[in-house]
Amino acid sequence: MLERELRFSEEEYHRRLRAVKASMDRQGMEVLIVVDPANMNYLTGYDGWSFYVHQGLIIALDRDEPFWFGRAQDSNGARLTTWLSEESILGYPDYYVQSRYTHTMRYVANKIAEEGWDRRRIGVEMDGYWFSARMYRELTEHLPSARFADATSLVAWVKSVKSDVEVTMIRQAAKITEKAMDLAVKMIEPGVAEREVAAAVSAAQIAGVDGYGGDSPAIFPIIPSGQRTSTAHLTFHPERSYQTGDVVLLELGSARCHYHAPLSRTVYLGKVPDDLKKVADVVVAGLRKTLEFIAPGVTAEEVEAYWRGCLAGTGVEKPSRVGYSFGLAYVPDWGEHTVSLRPGDKSVLEPGMTIHFMPGIWLDTYGFECSEPFLVTDSGCEKLVNFPERLFTKEG
Questions:
Q1: Relative orientation angle of helices 194-207 and 164-187, to the nearest 10 degrees
Q2: Locate the Creatinase N-terminal domain: which residues (predicted)?
Q3: What average pLDDT is seen over the chain?
Q4: Domain ranges of the chain
Q5: What pLDDT is attached to residue 363?
């Protein structure tokens, strides 16, 4: 008999499932197919690097447990990491795996029909990374009497408000982030190879801190230098070493049980140019003022407008969004694809939301980043990571 390895109590998973079913009911969905691995983990605990094949959950309003479906050889992963009973674990035969002749959604469609759900309104994660056009075509062809609806963000919006135990995981991830960021800042010197810093940071993210370890984060450390900092998402250069005069951007996010705590900072090697110093001073001052403004009941677009007001008259501009909801995630990113701090987003901030306030500035030849992940509280917001908000310099 395998011994379960649940990260949370069964009641916590039941609470989450009830909230998802309530959202399904409000949106008129009787069945929901969940294939995003973060959403699978959120609802059942399932945690396997098996998302290169089709896997997911089938949730029905009138069934107490979801069905987990996945490759048969991954079934013990479901038995180990989920709270589901044996009859809810469906391992499909290997001939469905990456086949040119059949498709896993035929297996799923057959199960839905077997349960008598083939005439129901079924939600699918249409715009998710893990749901393809082929999957949709197979489902519609093999469930011709079903009605399909877009449920891309249904689970994500439930996830956006964290429980106390989830916040605990994020706080633990934040401690690992502090360690990893401190290590990176200390290591970056002229002559040091970028790959050495990337390797050390990755090791620190996994090693964790005293008392607990980390997971591989959803995003590899983003640590460009020099002219590569003029864009947002380049990683290290495998052959380059740091040079005097380099700007180095650090965007790191450590994870604890796949709950993230992202953070960005900037290092300059040498005497800081006046234009970079000005950008840094403006961004850090605006960041601090905006964090004081944030409170429950404020909308995402109001936060962005306040931040933009902090930049008025400074000559510094930030045309893209300045933040997003984050939390439980797998590759390729730690964002939840719900709240975005930008014009037009009328999402109301609620206690329990965790948001990465990310006012990155990318100019023609360099960039500057200084961000803060925060928790919306009953009266304002709380920074989750304790690390100095400034431009770090190495003038030696």
A1: 150
A2: 16-158
A3: 97
A4: 10-159, 164-394
A5: 86
| The CATH number of domain 164-394 is 3.90.230.10 | yes
Average pLDDT score over residue span 306-313: 96
| Listed residue (125, 115, 104, 2) closest to 63, CA to CA | 115
Look up tokens 């039941």; give the residue. 14
d(CA 120, CA 60) in angstroms, rounded, equals 10
Structure tokens at 213: 């370890």
The percentage of residues in the chain with a pLDDT greater than 90, rounded to a whole number, is 95
How long a stretch of residues is the chain? Answer: 396
Beta carbons of 258 and 287 less than 8 angstroms apart? no
Sheet holding 89-92, edge to edge: 89-92, 67-71, 56-60, 31-34, 121-124, 147-150
Alpha helices in the chain, H assignment, sequence order: 10-26, 37-44, 75-81, 104-114, 133-142, 154-159, 164-187, 194-207, 274-293, 300-311
Tokens of 242: 């740091």
Q: What is the CATH number of domain 10-159?
A: 3.40.350.10
